[in-house]
Amino acid sequence: MKRKLSCVLLILALTLGLLPLGMPIIAADKPSSWAEEQVTRAISLGLVPQSLQSQYTQATTRAEYCALAVTVYENMTGKTIIGRVTFNDTKDVNVEKAAAIGVVNGVAPGLFAPNDKLTREQAATMLARLAAAIGSPLPQKAATFSDSKSISSWAIEAVGQVQAAGIMVGVGNNAFAPKDPYTREQSIITAIRLHDVIMGISPPGGGTQPGDTQIKEYAAKVHELVNAERAKAGLSPLGKIEALDAAAALRAKEIEEKFSHDRPNGTSCSTVLEEFGISNSFRGENIAYGQSTPEQVMNAWMNSAGHKANILGSSSKNLGVGVYKDAAGRFHWVQLFVG
Question: What is the average pLDDT across 232-261?
Answer without folding.
Answer: 88
